[in-house]
Design a protein that fits this description.
The complex is a heterotrimer of chains A (about 100), B (about 500) and C (about 500). Chain A has a domain at about 1-40: Orthogonal Bundle (Histone, subunit A), CATH 1.10.20. With about 100 residues, chain A is of the alpha+beta class. In chain A, a hairpin with a 2-residue loop joins strand 2 and strand 3. Chain A has a two-stranded antiparallel ribbon with strand order 2-3. Chain A has three helices and three strands. Chain B has helices at about 60-70, 170-185, 225-245, 290-300, 305-315, 320-325, 330-345, 350-365, 375-385, 390-405, 415-420, 430-445, 445-450, 455-470, 475-485, and strands spanning about 10-20, 55, 75, 80, 80-85, 95-100, 105, 110-115, 115-130, 135, 145-150, 155-160, 200-210, 220-225, 255-260, 265, 280, 285-290. In chain B, the strands form four sheets. In chain B, strands 1, 3, 7, 8, 9, 12, 13, 14, 15 and 16 form a ten-stranded mixed beta sheet that branches. A three-stranded antiparallel beta sheet of chain B has the order 6-5-17, with no helix packed on it. In chain B, strands 4-18 form a two-stranded antiparallel sheet. In chain B, helix 12 crosses helix 14. Chain B has three domains: about 10-290, no CATH class; about 305-420, no CATH class; about 430-485, Orthogonal Bundle (Arc Repressor Mutant, subunit A). With about 500 residues, chain B is an alpha+beta fold. With about 500 residues, chain C is of the alpha/beta class. Chain C has helices at about 10-15, 20-35, 45-60, 105-110, 160-165, 185-190, 225-235, 255-260, 290-305, 320-335, 355-365, 370-385, 390-410, 435-440, 445-450, 480-495; strands spanning about 40-45, 75, 120-125, 175, 190-195, 215-220, 275-280, 310-315, 415-420, 455-460, 470-475. In chain C, helix 10 (about 320-335) crosses helix 13 (about 390-410). Chain C has 16 helices and eleven strands. Classes of the chains: A alpha+beta (about 100), B alpha+beta (about 500), C alpha/beta (about 500). Chains in contact: A-B, A-C, B-C. The interface between A and B is large, with 35 and 53 residues.
């Protein structure tokens, strides 16, 4: 799988990681190597095999457990927002969002 | 009603997000109440702090099951939560937990009536997902910033998707109203559109009549009332037709409805079709719903509006229109049934008229959903109309008297109490009526002559005078009969 | 008195007989850590906090409410969030982050109002950034040095934990394992560690790397110590939806350890492992395996045979495929798990931006290191439209096949044994420019993670460079107790696990 600089920029944007031109050329080579490695999967015949999302599915029926519909959390705004880079009156602040 | 230009067809599909009225959020134990101070209902899970994980609220799944039952859909025995990945400041994890390939509800239908036509709107699916937080752009002291409130993040949503089978704005609104009725009836959503509990997005496209291929659709968001939904769709249809007629192409995009200007506007362009990179959420396991559980919920569900409507038509010989009106809300239907129970099925039509008339009008005036006149009290009124103790007109006065609390004790016999208090008994003694008629005829010669000259309306004037003279207690039927008799001589 | 390389059992005895107090033990290990700063094993140490916990432990001991681990020091990999001490995951993204809650593992091992094990936290340990790495060179706060040879890597991603144990800076440590990050550093540092069956240890409070692979586990000097620690770490947690609730998953680890093979008694009955079948996968002994490692593992297998076990040849045919499968699935899940780091609610926010889009993109570019970025990009790619089927789904199908391969193998054996790593620890800097070369070193550990099986590493010798070698023991689901008991028998007749680096005796 050949990875072009445009591919890389597109994925970097999808992942919201800023990349400079230097980054792009450096990472392009490394990622191409990694993609070369994972390409080996293509050759495997997996017809009729279900994907395995949860490892224990091999031996157990894995079904989601439920929580009763009850309020169990109290207001802990101060503690929870203690690491906020910017806040005002209980709101997290970010540069203005343009719709 | 906005007519669609000849030669064109409109195709509409609706996506509705109904906020489920559970006590806690779908993946955390935070409260879901509207209107709390910012971030006071956002737990570490809701804020997506490092190391936090989702746990599924059973109540949200029950709501989905109830919905599936109410629209005759298939409830998936196994469904999967998937991550929808995108970045937005009100989306704390950088992904929304939703459902993609295997939703909890598949198919289903909602019946609507437009004009005189009944139509069945097919649903594609309904799935569970979490709501995002809110961004505030005004009222902040710091300039050039937006404020993020994550109280709403994690509120359970049921996203309900229709097939693109609606052909007019009217159909779309009829569907939206019917759907609103269903989700509020079964109690899974409070339906408050102002607070954002029930949000409709419309996918609208046009095509030339006869064409099989679907046109490019635009998605319209930011519509928070049925009226705006209709106007937004109508505007969009006109806009798209204009674009095509001018030789252009409709762009697949999201547009916001601006109620002030009555127009849709393209959203600031994000990127071409977002790649959400859906994959099954590895922090959650497949949701299994057994037949037994569905059965339990089904037996505990209230009779659905559709069934109740049919029952009213059948058992009480009511018209389709009346039955539909009476089953618009659970409260109305319930009220009506209690009244019929007291007054007797034979008088169902009378009960229907009163419930849809006076009772409804009073509720509109006061607001709320609980009438100040209890069903048993209304039964008391109706019984006196049925046994001719009072006239219909007097009955209305009694009704308002009860509503305003004029009957001391406000008991189930309030009707009789007020009738006595205000002397509203009908006078049916023909001798007494004849006497009054004679007096009125004597005092209103002009009207008598006009009537005898052929002016039918003059009778009304005389009738009115008799009623007035009798303090409105004369039996109207008898008055009319006696007047006509005396005037024909 | 030297407690540096004392077993947990012996520490318990010393505490119970008042030879030493929890406070004295804490002071002792804090002092050792202070002298060993060059190893860079610890990221955060706070004497006041540690001594506060020690005083509470002493009070609990005095009240007669001590349990097996009360008052014994432990250090936590910086992947576990703690209310006291920062939690950085080895990343600039979280350099100043202080969690408002403790990870479940931290609660269970800590005081938790008398309900926890009552261990005393010495501080937080260095690791590869977001647990991504096999050498602890990916930490934003500098590499960890291997106590056996400071020019060499300690392994990763739980490199700080392994180094701390090997150097006697802590008698117990926690680590996490996603593709081998407990087992491989244990092997490289000559200590013992175990990754439990997926779902037995709660992931609540473990900063997520790859959700369907991550598991927390103990690191210590012996299988017996690990059994004590793991017993306190496992258990159903309602805050983690993938935490196992079944009866099997609740079978007590320690009881299983004690009941198997008569492990309480010394070996004089001759064949405590009689009847135990050890599967040896031929794919683990192929061309890539260094000769000295092969020799040490072979010698270990002979020891097991002398304990009464029999060898069975087995095949794990998709061993090599585990590499691409893992390096699709793990980055995919990671790319999504790390999306929450956007500088909005916590973590690093750039000072260099003109608008929201730049704020997010620059915060992430500045906060994440190279390897993390590579994995996020790889993950985003394999999940993206057009590639999802061919890469992500395909990898999950191969994953099922690998899981089935192991089940097939377990029909003819009780445990699977082989090397942990193809080589001993390499020099710092030798491989960090070649991510693929690094990935290939994970060949023996990845399959176990993909299948969710328990796997452990026990020291079994030294290489030509005098660096430690680890023996990997893989068990079937929920068999942690017996695995550690078998390793314990081995550790009764060998002394590799008692060796320590000269500089840290």
């Amino acid at each position: 799988m050949k990875l072009t600089p445009d591919d890389l920029k597109r994925i970097a944007h999808l992942a919201r990681i800023a990349v400079t031109e230097t980054d792009v050329s450096r990472m392009q080579a490394q990622l191409s190597g990694i993609f070369g490695l994972i390409d080996a999967l293509q050759a495997v015949d997996t017809k009729g095999v279900e994907p395995l999302s949860h490892p224990l599915d091999i031996v157990q029926d894995m079904a989601q457990r439920f929580r009763e519909d009850r309020i169990t959390e109290a207001d802990r705004r101060q503690a929870n927002m203690a690491n906020a880079p910017a806040q005002e009156n209980g709101l997290f602040l970010v540069p203005k969002v343009l719709e | 009603m906005s007519a669609i230009p000849a030669g064109w067809e409109v195709v509409i599909g609706l996506e509705t997000h109904a906020q489920l009225s559970t006590a806690s959020k779908i993946f955390s134990g935070s409260p879901t109440q509207y209107g709390a101070a910012p971030n006071t209902q956002a737990s570490v899970v809701d804020l997506a702090l490092p190391g936090t994980l989702p746990v599924l609220n059973k109540g949200a799944v029950e709501c989905a099951i109830k919905f599936g039952l109410a629209v005759n859909a298939t409830i998936a025995p196994r469904s999967i939560f998937a991550r929808k990945n995108y970045f937005y400041p009100d989306l704390p994890k950088g992904y929304q937990i939703s459902q993609y390939e295997l939703p909890v509800v598949v198919g289903g239908e909602v019946k609507i009536t437009v004009g005189n036509e009944e139509k069945s709107i097919q649903l594609t699916r309904a799935h569970l997902e979490e709501d995002a937080g809110k961004s505030l752009h005004e009222g902040l002291e710091t300039s050039g910033v937006s404020g993020i409130d994550l109280n709403r993040a994690g509120t359970p949503l049921l996203e309900i998707v229709t097939e693109p089978c609606m052909r007019s704005a009217e159909e779309a609104v009829a569907y939206a109203k019917a759907l609103h009725g269903i989700v509020t009836w079964i109690g899974i959503c409070d339906g408050n559109m102002q607070e954002g509990s029930f949000r409709c997005d419309a996918n609208v496209s046009v095509r030339r009549a006869g064409e099989q291929k679907l046109g490019t659709r635009a998605e319209i968001k930011n519509v928070n009332s049925f009226r705006f939904l209709e106007k937004a769709i109508q505007y969009e249809v006109r806009r798209q037709i204009e674009v095509i007629e001018d030789g252009g192409k409709v762009v697949q995009e999201t547009r916001l409805y601006d109620a002030d200007r009555d127009e849709t506007r393209s959203m600031r362009s994000k990127e071409d079709a977002m790649d959400y990179r859906y994959f099954p959420d590895p922090d959650l396991l497949p949701v299994e719903i057994s037949e037994a559980w569905i059965g339990e919920i089904k037996s505990a569900m209230p009779e659905l509006p559709e069934q109740r409507r049919q029952r009213f038509e059948r058992d009480f010989a009511l018209s389709a229109y009346d039955a539909a009106q009476l089953t618009a809300t659970r409260e109305t239907a319930s009220y009506f049934e209690q009244v019929v129970e007291g007054a007797g099925a034979a008088h169902a039509k009378l009960a229907a008229n009163w419930v849809l008339g006076e009772v409804s009008a009073l509720l509109n005036e006061i607001g709320g959903s609980t009438s100040h006149v209890r069903p048993a009290q209304l039964v008391g009124i109706l019984n006196r109309v049925i046994d001719q103790t009072i006239s219909n007109k007097a009955a209305k006065e009694v009704f308002h008297g009860i509503a305003h609390g004029d009957a001391p004790g406000n008991g189930d016999d309030a009707a009789d109490v007020i009738i006595e208090m205000r002397g509203l008994r009908q006078v049916s003694d023909s001798g007494a009526i004849e006497k009054i008629v004679d007096e009125v005829i004597a005092a209103n010669q002009k009207s008598v002559e006009e009537y005898k000259a052929g002016k039918e309306k003059a009778l009304n004037a005389l009738f009115g005078q008799v009623m007035k003279a009798s303090n409105k207690t004369a039996n109207p039927a008898q008055v009319t009969e006696i007047l006509k008799r005396k005037l024909s001589t | 008195m030297s407690f540096a390389h004392t077993s947990l059992k012996a520490l318990r005895a010393a505490l119970d007989t008042k030879q030493v107090s929890a406070t004295e033990l804490a002071e002792y290990f804090l002092a050792r850590a202070e002298k060993a700063l060059a190893l860079n094993a610890f990221l955060h140490i706070d004497r006041g906090l540690t001594l506060g916990q020690a005083r509470e432990a002493d009070a609990r001991i005095a009240r007669g409410e001590a349990t097996a681990l009360t008052g014994i020091p432990v250090a936590h990999k910086d992947i576990f969030v703690t209310r006291d001490w920062r939690s950085t995951a080895g990343s600039n993204m979280l350099a100043d982050y202080v969690s408002p809650f403790d990870a479940t593992v931290v609660e269970k091992l800590g005081a938790a109002d008398g309900k926890g094990a009552g261990m005393v936290c010495l501080g937080k340990l260095n690791c590869d950034e977001f647990a991504m790495g096999s050498s602890n060179e990916n930490s934003a706060f500098g590499p960890v040095k291997n106590p056996w040879n400071p020019a060499k890597i300690p392994g990763g991603s739980s490199g700080g934990s392994a180094a701390a144990i090997a150097a006697g800076l802590a008698p117990a440590a926690t680590g996490t394992d996603t593709g081998g990050s407990l087992r491989q550093p244990a092997a490289m540092c000559g200590i013992t560690a175990i990754k439990p069956t997926y779902g037995r240890v709660s992931r609540y409070g473990m900063i997520a790397f790859a959700s369907s692979l991550d598991q927390g586990g103990p690191m210590a000097k012996s299988a017996e110590d690990c059994a004590l620690l793991l017993d306190a770490m496992v258990g159903f947690d309602e805050r983690d939806s993938t935490s196992l609730n079944s009866a099997e998953a609740q079978t007590p680890v320690l009881a299983g350890f004690l009941a198997a093979f008569g492990s309480e008694k010394r070996v004089d009955t001759g064949s405590p492992l009689k009847g135990v079948r050890i599967g040896v996968p031929k794919e683990f002994f192929g061309a890539g395996l260094a000769a000295d490692v092969a020799r040490a593992v072979e010698a270990a297998l002979v020891e097991f045979e002398m304990l009464g076990a029999v060898r069975v040849d087995i095949s794990l045919p998709r061993t090599t495929l585990s590499i691409p499968a893992y390096y699709v699935i793990a980055p995919a899940e990671a790319s999504s798990n790390l999306s929450r780091f956007d500088g909005v609610r916590y973590g690093h926010r750039t000072k260099n931006y003109r608008d929201l889009a730049e704020m997010i993109a620059n915060s992430r570019a500045e906060g994440f290191g190279e390897e993390v970025k590579r994995r996020i990009l790889t993950g985003a790619y394999v999940l993206s439209h057009g590639y999802y089927d061919a890469y992500y789904l395909q990898a999950q199908r191969v994953r099922r096949l690998i899981g089935l391969d192991f089940q097939e193998a377990f029909k003819s054996c009780d445990f699977i044994m082989g090397p942990v790593s193809p080589t001993t620890a390499w020099s710092i800097g030798a491989k960090n420019n070649d991510p693929v070369a690094m990935y290939l070193e994970d060949i023996y550990t990845l399959g176990v993670s993909l299948a969710g099986l328990p796997g452990m590493s026990a020291p079994c010798g030294f290489g030509e460079d005098n660096m430690p070698i680890g023996l990997q023991i893989i068990g079937n689901y929920f068999d942690e107790g017996r695995m550690m008991a078998a390793a314990h028998q081995y550790q009764q007749v060998t002394d590799w696990h008692t060796r320590c680096p000269e500089a840290f005796k």
